[in-house]
Every structure is written in structure tokens, then in C-alpha cells.
Design brief:
301 residues; alpha/beta; seven-stranded mixed β-sheet; 11 strands; 43% helix
Amino acid sequence: MADWDIRKLQILRTLRERGTVTATAEALHMTPSAVSQQLSNLSRQLGVELLRAHGRRVRLTDAARLVLRHAEAVFEQLERADAELAAYIRGEAGEVRVGAFSTAVPALVVPAVTALRATRPGIAVRVREAEAQEAYELLAAGEVDLALSLAAQAPSAVDPRFTRVPLLADPLDVALPGDHPLARAERLRLADLAAEPWIFGGSGPWSDITRGACEAAGFRPHRGHAAAGWPAILAMVEAGMGVALVPRMAAVPRDGVVMRELREDRPVRHVVAAVRGGAEEAPAIATVLTALRAAAEERAP
């Protein structure tokens, strides 16, 4: 196979455009002898004669024109590569793989992706729904570039493998049956519901969040039913089986459920993003993080 040299091919192309070795040297900021030497080397590398003397000038051979015809496709592709690389450096191109927990996908990731389609169409975001443990395993293994989780489930802030980025303090509202005596009370505190049966998971982060919020309000919640999925929890609230704390990001309107905001002792859950240490400076990842922050600000109470 011939030994192709892009720089020397560029010199040959310039010679075709400028017509003389002297003009080529001026255009490329070289000496005429350097131009002649580079073209002689290219001729030896390709094994064909590229130039013929024509008086005081040189003329491209048919072999040289054939070589340049194929080289043009290479030059065109390199121009595209330069343009894409420049866009990547500016954070306008690239692929970012995101692992996010279920309620963060419609609430934060989808709005961020929608905004990026309009402002940074060169960035491709690949979304993978994954709860915290799986998301951080994927992040550590290099299978996703960015993971979203609750702060309580995120790796320690001193873990050198990851950089944590706060996104949102998501308020927790109380879901009450539509006919509950306190559903339309003028003011509602969490402590007003101390005697109610509560619906939350038997273990895991949401159980800890519910217990912690209620204990901070001065009581230990009685778990009347255990469920982990929001459709199941809200269906039981609608049926009058109990009350529940529901993050605002996860709330889905139901006719038989009243969502009440807690103003005095409002609990929140903190949503964070994490990337591998140092990756937050990668242009495309930084652009996606900016879009996620913007989506979070839109949801901020």
C-alpha cells in the first residue's frame, strides 16, 4: 500500500492551485526548496512521477491529478472532523449517557434534553433509567457519564471517584384522600397527621425519608400499608387507606387525591448529579449539567 502523507498532499494541491513552486512556497510560508523536497519525497513514497519540468515551471502529471482526485475526499472529511472537533471543544457536540432514577427522567432529564435539542442539536443524550446503586455502578464502570440520584443515596462527597453536583431541593407534599377532614384545612402541619395510617415502603431510602420527616415533626409514623411505586401509593390514598408524603417531582394528579403543601415544617429531598472525578469539565458533560440545572430551576418552589 502506498504511504500517504496528508501534509505533502496539501502541498501538491496548493501547487495545482497556485501554478508555481514559488507561489506555493509563499502561500504555505515555506521556502521553494522545501516545497520541491517535500514533493520529491511524496513521489518516492507513492512510487509515481508527480511533476514534470516544463520550461522554468513544473506541470502535474496524470498520476498527480489522479492522486489529488482521491485526496479531495480525504480533505473534505478532515474539514468535517475539524468542524466537529471545534464544536465538541465548545460543548456543542458529543454524546452524553445519563443514568437517572424513575421520577427524575420526566421531571428533569426530559426537559433538559428537549432544551438541548433546540440550543445544542449536536449533543446526543442517551438516557437509561436506573436506581441509585445501579446508576453508580454504571458510572464507575464507564457505561454512563452522568448519574442522577437522591443525595441520601449518592456516594460520599469525599469519594475521590466521583464529583457531586447539587441540582434540586424537591419539596415533599402530603397526599390526602379527597374526603379527608384536613384535605381543605386552612393550614396544615405534618404533626396534624400524626394519628393517620401512613403509606410508604418497608425499607430503603423512601422509608428513611418519610420516617425522618415525621420524626422531625415530633412523631413516629404508623405504617398502615407498604408500597414503593407512586401509582400504588396514590391509589391507596385515593381509596382512603392512608396518607403519604409524595415528592413534587413524582406527583401525578388523581381526582380522588388532594395534594397539600406543608409550609411550616415542609420536608424536602435533595436531588444530585454525579460524574466521574474531573469529568465535569468535559465540554459536552458540562453542557448537559447546565441544562439539568436550568430544568431544576424551573421546578424550584
